[in-house]
Amino acid sequence: MSSSFRQPPPSAGGNQQDLIENALDALRREWRSGFNGRVIEMLALPAIQRLRDLAATQHAAAELETVISRLSNYRELTTEGRKEELKSLAECIKALSPDLQPDRPGTQQIGKLRESRIPVKPSPKPEAGPKTTRSKMTRPDSPVTELPRVGEAVAKKLGKLGVTKIIDLLNLSPRRHIDYSRTITIGSILGFGEGGEITVRGEILDVKENPGHGVTRVTVRLADETGWVKVTWFNNYIARQLRAGMQIAVSGTLDSGFGPPSFTSPEWEIVGGPSLSTGRLTPIYPLTAGIAQKTMRSLTRAALDATLSAIVEPLPESIRESQGLVDINRAYEHLHYPGNQGELADAHRRITFDNLLLLQLGLMLRKNKRTSSRGVSIPVDRDLLLKFEEQLPFRLTNAQRRALDEVLNDYNLGKPMARLLQGDVGSGKTAVAAAAALLAVGAGYQVAVMAPTEILAEQHAVNFVKLYEGLPEELRPRSALLTGSTRAKERRELLPLVADGSTNILVGTHTLIQDQVSFARLGLTVIDEQHRFGVRQRSYLPTRVVEAQPHVLSMTATPIPRTLNLVLNGDLDVSIIDELPPGRIPIETHRYVGSERSLAYQLVRQEVAKGHQVFVICPLVEESDTSEAKAAVEEAERLQLEVFPKFRIATLHGRMAGREKERIMTAFRDREFDVLVATSVIEVGIDVPNATVMIIEGADRFGLAQLHQFRGRVGRGGNRSYCLLLADESSADGEARLDLMVETNDGFVVAEKDLELRGPGDYLGTRQSGLPEMSWLDSSFDTRLLDQAREVAERIVNVDPTLGQLDHHELKRRVIVLWSTAGTDPLPS
Fold it and tell me: Phi and psi (nearest 5°) for 679?
């Protein structure tokens, strides 16, 4: 038997001691009965309810109500959870023992949880909650189990929210706050009207239970000196928590649709206890099964109280003053329990600034760490570059020339280049990369070109050969392809040629970073769609070189707004190709609603009759590979049977193995199918020149960035091409997205609008490979704040590149903690 159930020490007041012992004995019986819950309802609840009359302080009364509430939810726990809950409840009752004494006047000031009091000096800072004291300080990085009433069962549930330490609770930002701060008398309710959120306080006149099918309706009459109001909850256990004569506050939306005004399922609290749910801006948290809003509020309140004097301010006062930021303790308090909207806004701004600063510091330190090593020196051979440009079947655009000049300037710096080449589909990124690769080969170095999939690697291998085919043979690089599908015999023949430098350009997938692949003199690594690789995969090729570090040129066809480039690629130099080659035919985008889809199908028949091919993207039903796969298969069957019975139709979805996806995609590229029905697994960069139509079913359900990526899969063969957006009646936001897609083909315009509509948190999605956890980056993110954080980060790194100064110690610690979630340490070794 756990020590939690041992008999409490004797104290004055025999009757009081008997009642406490009866309550503990009931918990012991439940333990011995195998945690089946029957003893809780028959003995434990009545015994603990009798303790109410002994409560000598309002704190004790509030704590007993919490115990009763927890017992009411006891049956919802697992067996292991019930075991932990019994131990925790027994400890709680014993801790309350000094405050359970009949006829003792309550002298203690009502405050926060007894177990989370901390001795602190009087502070001039305003606090949202009542002040309390505690015998010892709790570190923010302590496990949540150090908080009162948090056993292993509760900790496991919190872990599903990413909360394992007390600091995680502090950083668990409420999804929103409901304004229950307007407190009115019950008599004035009639003049208030319906729909507003209000708080009333009063005494319970009576409690009535009306059993229903599985759920009991509990109705109370709540009265003050001006009148009474009916309050209803649908909860089997709440009747055991409420009784006539109790003073409570309720907060909620007034319902006056039928009969007199009333409340249905409002928040409620005992008057005089800690105000966490009523009469204030009330936090609404993300939850998981088994954790209620009231529980989460008591947990965050306890976390705030427990760490009040333990949180170290990471920002020097000079930075806080220059940026107009509140101190960190005030920020955490008001993030959860603000007194008004202004305090909440200031708290959000401070916490977001801190996170952005830590992110930018890490990116800048990571860049400094990389550029501190010696880079490959590649002389710029202007004659060779001129020969390359003259033999191209097209002229480089001004944007391509600007990007190429930036790459060549990096070649001259003597530091390893880390540059992102960003351009829309068809903007000519590969030609710039090929020019940079040619100069590296001309200087006696090798080039590795790494793509995320075999089909993209194969495509790059073909394109590089085409871009060099007009050069004299002696100037043409010798290139090869290495993927997981490369046959063993070919691999055995190729690897020695790479090792001795005979092969100048090696194109492949992640196979390029396998141990058996050895380069003689690697000078440049080109990475396509770098976010598809893990940070270790991206960095592995450069770190395999003992002497000078090779240059790294990453490419992406995903337009990224400038602001998010600072977040996603703040450690890279960015070159943007924002101009399409002259003569390229814009993709025509049309939208069809409801029955108009028959017009879209007619256009498909016309294009297939010309020998062209068609992509069909299935609507995003829900975030599940299984459901999306089913949707794709069903759509392919429908099209085959009802719409295009004579067409050759294939299906591609996320449930397929990687090899099977590539087989289907290769067969489609080789014109074995007329129509490819796919989910969102269609690869960025896949080149099917014969595809001229992209149909997107349920287009209003996709984000702008994804719609633009889908559109980029067609129009690559010089033929007039179409993107057809099909939707049923959509929302106003959906209509706005479709209208913008019809209006513009400019990916950067689309990206900026996407950021505006969805916020950076949604926009980033899964593009965080190599970056720390950024769940805090939500729609409230202010791009101006990022600029400020970047400025401050630059100032700090310029004067203290190792964050070694005394007033930067806490910043340094937090940078290390944040970036450990990305598996990297940006600080110098």
Answer: -95, -165
pLDDT at 392: 92
Q: Is the dihedral of CA 51, 53, 56, 60 positive or negative?
A: positive
Q: What is the pTM of this model?
A: 0.66
Starting at the edge strand found earlier in the chain, the sheet holding 551-556 runs: 479-482, 505-508, 446-450, 522-528, 551-556, 418-423, 573-577
Q: Cα separation of 557 and 823, whole Å?
A: 26
Q: Spell out the residues 6+ positions from residue 495 whose beta carbon is closer than 8 angstroms to its own.
A: 516, 517, 518
Residue 418 has phi, psi (to 5 degrees) of -140, 90
Joined tokens for residue 516: 């058996």
Counting beta carbons within 10 angstroms of the beta carbon of residue 530, is it exposed (0 to 12), middle (13 to 18) or buried (19 or more)? buried
At residue 9, the pLDDT reads 39
In three-state secondary structure terms, 392 is coil
Give the Å distances, CA to CA, from 279 to 249, 283, 297, 577, 713: 8, 12, 14, 55, 55
**Structural tokens at position 287:** 């939850």
Per-residue pLDDT at 130 exceeds 70: no
Eight-state DSSP code of residue 261: -
3-state SS of the chain: helix, strand, coil percent to 5?
45, 15, 40
Helix (H, G, I), strand (E, B) or coil at 251: strand
Reply yes or no on whether the pLDDT at 781 is more than 80. no
- Closest by alpha carbon to 589, among 603, 579, 577, 575? 603
Q: Could you please report the per-residue DSSP string of 293-362?
A: HHHHHHHHHHHHHHTTTTPPP-S-HHHHHHHT---HHHHHHHHHS-SSHHHHHHHHHHHHHHHHHHHHHH
CA angle 212, 218, 224 (to 5 degrees): 160
How far is Cα 707 from Cα 723, in angstroms, rounded to an integer? 9
Supply φ then ψ for residue 526, to 5 degrees: -110, 125
pLDDT, one tens digit per residue, over 20-55 is 888 888 888 888 778 877 778 778 887 887 887 777
pLDDT, one tens digit per residue, over 522-531 is 999 999 876 5
The crossing angle, in degrees rounded to 10, of helices 328-336 and 293-306 is 170
**CA end-to-end distance (rounded Å), the chain:** 51
d(CA 282, CA 250): 12
Dihedral sign computed on CA atoms, order 675, 677, 680, 681 = negative
Going by C-alpha positions, the residue among 516, 503, 63, 456 that lies closest to residue 272 is 63
Q: Determine which of 35-39, 60-64, 602-606 has the lowest per-residue pLDDT on average.
A: 60-64
Nearest alpha carbon to residue 87 among 98, 74, 97, 100? 74
Q: How many C-beta atoms lie closer than 10 Å to residue 488's C-beta?
A: 7
Distance between CA atoms of residues 438 and 384, nearest Å: 8
Q: Angle CA(319)–CA(321)–CA(323) in degrees, nearest 5?
A: 70
The token pair that represents 750 in the structure block: 């689309």
Give alpha helix (H) positions in 121-172.
152-159, 166-170
DSSP string covering 441-506? HHTT-EEEEE-SSHHHHHHHHHHHHHHHTTS-GGGS--EEEE-TTS-HHHHHHHHHHHHTT---EE
How long is the chain? 829
Q: Are 673 and 644 in contact (CB under 8 A)?
A: no
DSSP-assigned states of every residue in 404-425: HHHHHHHHTSSS--EEEEEE-T
Name which of 43, 51, 52, 41 is nearest 74 in CA terms. 41
Please write the tens of the pLDDT for every residue from 477-504.
999 999 988 899 999 999 999 999 999 9
H or E segment and range at residue 262: strand 262-264
3-class SS at 576?
Answer: strand
**What domains appear along the chain, each with residue ranges and CATH number?**
3-106 (1.20.120), 176-284 (2.40.50.140), 382-413+427-556 (3.40.50.300), 588-744 (3.40.50.300)
Q: Which residues contact 646 (CB under 8 A, 6 or more apart)?
A: none
